[in-house]
UniProtKB/TrEMBL annotation:
Name of the gene: cyk3
Keyword entries, A-Z: Signal
Coiled-coil regions, chain positions: none
Name this polypeptide is given: Hypothetial protein
Signal sequence bounds: 1-21
Compositional bias annotation for Polar residues: 39-53, 61-71, 78-102
InterPro entries (UniProt xref): Papain-like_cys_pep_sf, Transglutaminase-like
Native organism: Mycoplasmopsis californica HAZ160_1
Length: 762
């Protein structure tokens, strides 16, 4: 497996107009909740337990950069502070610095400093500001907090910006990192420097280049790097050669690390950068060997899918789905894996070319995701066996696709009985499952699209008979596929008798084929003397309804309808008959670029003569919508940049038209929102845009009270007095607030909801 290089930088992006991408990262159990004996004995994963149970939370965050207006505002506020207040803040900073300069243990290369070193407990610090017992960070997270009712707070208490950020001396770095659970992770961070992310993930042998960026997002030189682990001991290592294997990392050079986790559990560590007395944190998850293998195999499979499907994107969604179905059916054989789980991935089908139903279904889903076709996985029981397959959405609704049962076997070709079918076609074989879609959301137009002469109505039967008898092939055996039912036997006989005005003895045989039935009938032969010759001219035509029309001009009046007109390369949307011409409206072209369309006309009793049968259309498709999600709180938001030409749906619900210029989303949370632009006279239906509202990480392990300061905050966050509605933007990464109870969250914005509210007593 080739090494993968990633260049990262940790960043506080301070613009509320940029989508915030957050990562809920694993954080070890707060050591303030452990006794000294617990820490010293490292008993039974007391630290790592919490990190193992939080590994499924989302990752990554971009924070915002303060605007010049904000800077000016707070500089002005600082200048207008009364002299006595300025002196108080200066004294507070001096005392706080003194309190953080207690004796520390020096760090030597590859030699750990553990939590057994005497660490000053923040509960012993007496803050200079008014505060109570809740200054202990762990207590503030647990206890139920109530504002002192004797001193009611204003709805908008002013925050005091802390302009002087303390610097850490070289001899203090290790303990400053170990104490970050009390002080807050960004207590020593200067706002001018940042990383592009606050979190990263590594698989085995994947390299990560560490870069600290300035305000212009340019790397700075002279950063010292450290790695903190929590298990088996709470330890800080300097980034040097021979880095301890407990970190799950390998030293590559002075600013590059590589994932190397040979355990059976993922590791969660912190990488710290020290620059000019400031400390900056990056949380890193290192996947274990099996997880690394799964991720690498997924990426390899996706790369192969991109290669295979690169020439399919200009096709219609139906044709793209057909290509994927046929590739799996022709290339993947059904075979159980040698080891447990080997046959349960897309990799087993796409790369290994041998899998069971899970591999077929996940492989097909990977194709659909790459080809931008809405799809879901569906599970159920077939007899006593568990089974999994797919559903995809085309322009008229949802269809089942079972690539496993469509694979060719014993020299037979790909089986199309399970490509674009409905509930009836599956449940007839005692397949049990819970379908997420009611009947009105299921598609009908493309049902059993690839089955030869599939019928569901009398019109379908008449159309096939018209074509077969007028092709002049001397073949009077009619073959039909129908759903698995007997109801079509009398229907076919009745249609034949009406068309030929004679009693029919046409039934030949009925042959059940899995979920369908194949019928064969003998048709009466036509007498040539009863056939009338009619001249036609066919041409392209446009009107106010459509740019995709074929006009059939007739030299005499002949009624033509869907039973008589056959088109290849597109579907017939509708037909309009006039005295001297017929208009055939086309849509859903196989090729979304230049499409050649072939047309034929058949009707019993007529021999139509026309020269041109093939026409080329320059097909235009509506552009994909560019809607934007804007969060309004932690559950709701709206979609902007839309209009009434667009349809939307929430999750996989029913499509509905946009009313106005925005879509209000009330308590929909992180449910996906899909948009598509409606077809019109000149453009076909657009591709689907899928919007996934993002929910930032929780703040319960980040925001702290330390020495009277609220730390662990940044410009991406807001606060309010508990019980009020007015949210106030936070400026900087350390603030002073009047005593009281406050709510904090990562503010909602472009692309993201707000985080869950975290309540803190100040």
């Amino acid at each position: 497996m080739k090494k993968k290089n990633k260049i990262i930088g940790l960043g506080f992006i301070l613009s509320a107009n940029i989508a915030i991408c957050s990562t809920q990262l694993v954080s070890c159990k707060n050591l303030s909740q452990l006794s000294e004996q617990d820490v010293a004995s490292n008993s039974n994963n007391a630290i790592s337990k919490t990190s193992e149970t939080n590994n499924d939370k989302k990752r990554g965050q971009s924070l915002s950069k303060p605007t010049s207006n904000q800077s000016t505002e707070h500089e002005t506020a600082n200048k207008t502070t009364k002299p006595s207040q300025s002196k108080t803040m200066s004294d507070q900073t001096e005392k706080q610095t003194q309190q953080l300069t207690h004796p520390l243990t020096k760090l030597t290369p590859a030699s750990p400093v553990t939590s057994e070193i005497k660490i000053k407990d923040p509960t012993t610090i007496k803050p200079d500001l008014q505060a109570n017992e809740a200054n202990d960070a762990s207590k503030s997270e647990k206890q139920e907090l109530n504002t002192d009712s004797s001193k009611p707070l204003k709805n908008d208490p002013k925050q005091e910006l802390v302009l002087q950020i303390p610097k850490v001396e070289n001899s203090e770095i290790n303990n400053a990192i170990l104490n970050a659970r009390y002080t807050g992770f960004n207590y020593y961070s200067q706002p001018d420097y940042h990383f592009g992310k606050n979190a990263e993930e590594l698989i085995k042998d994947q390299e990560l280049k560490l870069e600290l960026l300035d305000k212009q997002n340019k790397p700075v030189e002279g950063v010292k790097w450290y790695v903190r682990i929590y298990y088996p001991n709470d330890v800080v290592y300097e980034l040097k050669n021979n880095l301890n294997k407990d970190t799950g990392l390998v030293y590559v050079n002075d600013n590059t690390i590589k994932g190397f986790n040979d355990t059976d559990k993922e590791k969660n560590v912190e990488v710290w950068g020290e620059y000019q007395g400031g400390l900056y944190q990056l949380k890193v998850k290192i996947w274990n060997h099996k997880q690394s293998q799964n991720i690498a195999e997924y990426n390899q499979s996706l790369k192969r899918v991109k290669e295979l499907s690169q020439g399919w994107h200009h096709l219609s969604p139906l044709q793209r789905a057909l290509k994927a179905y046929e590739w799996l059916g022709n290339n993947v054989r059904y075979q159980e894996g040698q080891y447990l789980g080997d046959d349960q991935t897309a990799y087993s089908a796409i790369i290994g070319l041998a899998s069971v139903c899970t591999g077929y279904a996940k492989g097909f889903k990977m194709f659909m995701d790459e080809l931008k076709i809405p799809n879901i996985l569906l599970t159920g029981d077939v007899g006593s066996e568990k089974h999994i397959w797919n559903m995809i959405e085309l322009d008229d609704g949802w269809y089942h696709v079972d690539a496993t049962w469509g694979a060719k076997k014993l020299g037979r070709d790909v089986n199309y009985n399970y490509f674009l079918v409905n509930d009836y076609d599956l449940k007839i074989q005692n397949r049990k499952y819970n379908n997420r879609f009611p009947f009105n959301q299921m598609g009908q137009k493309y049902r059993a699209y690839k089955l030869n002469n599939f019928i569901t109505s009398e019109e379908d039967i008449k159309k096939i008979i018209n074509k077969q008898l007028m092709l002049k092939t001397n073949n009077n055996i009619l073959q039909l596929h129908t759903p698995y039912t007997n109801q079509f036997e009398p229907t076919v006989k009745n249609v034949i008798e009406k068309m030929f005005q004679q009693r029919s003895n046409s039934y030949a045989k009925r042959n059940p084929e899995m979920n369908m039935v194949k019928y064969e009938y003998f048709l009466p032969k036509l007498e040539n003397s009863n056939i009338k010759s009619v001249n036609l001219t066919i041409e392209k035509h446009t009107n106010s309804k459509s740019s995709y029309i074929l006009k059939i001009n007739k030299n005499e009046k002949v009624d033509l309808n869907n039973e008589n007109i056959f088109v290849e390369g597109a579907f017939i949307k509708s037909i309009e008959n006039y005295d001297n011409h017929t208009l055939v409206y086309l849509y859903n072209f196989d090729d979304l670029k230049n499409q050649n369309i072939k047309i034929n006309v058949y009707k019993i009793g007529y021999d139509f003569k026309y020269e041109q049968k093939t026409f080329t259309f320059d097909v235009l498709q509506q552009p994909k919508p560019e809607g934007l999600f804007v969060g309004t709180d932690n559950k709701s938001g709206k979609i902007i940049n839309v209009d009434e030409t667009i349809e939307y749906r929430i999750d996989v619900g029913v499509w509905q038209s946009v009313q106005g210029t925005s879509i209000n989303l009330n308590e929909t949370g992180t449910k996906t929102v899909s948009l598509r632009k409606k077809a019109n006279a000149t453009h076909l239906l657009s591709e689907v845009q899928v919007i996934e509202p993002f929910k930032p990480r929780d703040l319960d392990r980040e925001i702290k009270i330390y020495n009277g300061y609220v730390t662990g905050v940044d410009n991406s966050m807001q606060y309010r007095v508990k019980g009020t509605d007015k949210w106030i933007d936070i400026i900087g990464n350390k603030i002073l607030l009047p005593s009281g109870t406050y709510d904090f969250w990562i503010k909602p914005g472009n692309g993201n909801l707000a985080s869950e509210i975290y309540t803190l007593q100040v």
